[in-house]
Amino acid sequence: MKISDKNKDFFALVYEVVKQIPKGRVTNYGAIANYLGTKRSSRMVGWAMNASHIYKEIPAHRVVNRQGLLTGKMHFDYPTEMEELLMSEGIEVINDQIVNFQIVFWDPEVELAIA
DNA sequence: CCATTGACTTAAG
DNA sequence: CCTTAAGCCAATG
Predict the structure, then answer these.
(1) Mean pLDDT, rounded, of chain A
(2) CA torsion A27→A30→A34→A40, rounded to 10°?
(3) CA-wise closest residue to A25 among A81, A96, A108, A95
């Protein structure tokens, strides 16, 4: 998939990255924004996530803030849905905080290796 | 069109 | 550890 495809909306680009997050791994808003070349616009990534619920198949639960905190849990159907999904993938979550966050962290800029 | 808000991040006090 | 401030930009009223 070519990221240089400018015909797509910023949101669509975010979705494509999020879809590629491996199961059992997570990333943060800033990393995605950085990968898309707009690292200061991490808020837009959050916006994209907010809109992603209409596009199914977007594992928004694998995107947390840079502390590994489930800041967006309240935007799911139920506040506990996010951590339940993460737990079901083998990610340990305690008090809305992902345990071993830096271990399960998935950086698109590294994993997708920008050319 | 202007003001406010927000699933963010970094820096500074 | 806490609070502010600033930068970022789409969406909403």
Answers:
(1) 89
(2) 170
(3) A108
Query: Residue A98 in 3-state DSSP?
Result: strand
Q: At what angle do helices A10-19 and A42-52 cross, to 10 degrees?
A: 80
CATH of domain A10-106: 1.10.10.10
Q: Are A59 and A21 a contacting pair, CB within 8 Å?
A: yes
Residue with tokens 């994993």: A111
What number is the average pLDDT over the span A14-32?
95
| Cβ < 7 Å from nucleic strand B | A 28-30, 42-47, 49-50, 52-53, 60-61, 63, 65-67, 71-72, 75-76, 82
pLDDT digits (tens, 9 = 90+) for A65-75: 999 999 999 99
Residue with CA nearest C11 C1'?
A47
